[in-house]
Amino acid sequence: MISRCQHLEPNVAANIRAQLSALDTAYWRDRRSHKPNVGLNGEVGRYFSCGRESVPQEIRQLIDDIAPNFFGYDLEDWIVNKTPTQGGMPPHIDNEGYLAVALLCLQSGSGCFEWYHGNDLSKPEQIPDESGQVIRFDQVDLIHAVPPTHSERYVIVFLYR
Which residues neighbour 6 within 8 Å (Cβ) at sequence distance 6 or greater? Predict the structure, then answer.
């Protein structure tokens, strides 16, 4: 099931985005070569990730403090994905073993989250990025993607057990 809600005020999301975009490139792992999230047909996306343990303490605390709580699930970890302009992720199924995922968009208009009704690739549905919006899903075998972005995109991915 997919749900979405406004979780943060856009100015709060913009502040977090500004702090993340100011991080040195050494904080970011290129997901084409480090733990690639391989698509259904073996293709590799173009984006970068920075994990909870890697970010400076002040950013870690800020993100920990704003993490969404969902009844019945415990937050296990989070990761920040940074997607460059025209980057993205091919249709894929996450294989990390989490029971629910929540995506916090940190800007509007940069791109979208795409998922497929009944996991049918001919039935895509897009949810455009809106600053401060959370998109949540708890269908662990959900096929989803990030089509090529319009501008640099930052999303915090919260992972639940």
Answer: 130, 132, 133, 134
